[in-house]
Amino acid sequence: MSQTSAEPQIVLNVDDTEPLRYAKTRTLQRAGYDVVEAGTGADALRMVAERQPAVVLLDIKLPDINGIEICKRIKREHPRILVLQVSASLVASADRAKGLDSGADAYMTQPAEPEELVAAVGALFRIRNAESALLRLNDTLEKRVEERTRELAEANARLQAEIAERAKAEAALVQAQKMEAIGQLTGGIAHDFNNLLAAVVGGLHLIQRRSTEPRVGEIAGHALQAAQRGVKLISQLLAFSRTQELEARPVDINHLISGMQSLLRQSIGPMVEIRTELDPAAGLVLADANQLELALVNLAINARDAMAGGGRIVLATSRTTQPASANAEAWICISVRDNGPGMPPDVKDRAFDPFFTTKPAGQGTGLGLSQVYGVARQLGGHATIDTQPGEGTTVSILLPAAAATAIEEVAPPESEPQLGKQETVLLIEDDADVRSVMSAALLELGYQVVTAVDGDEALRLARVIPVDIAVLDYVMPGLTGAETAKLLKEFLPDLPIVFASGHADTRALAGVPGAHHLLRKPFALHELASRLRDELGRRG
Question: Which residues carry this modification: 4-aspartylphosphate (predicted)?
Answer without folding.
Answer: 59, 473
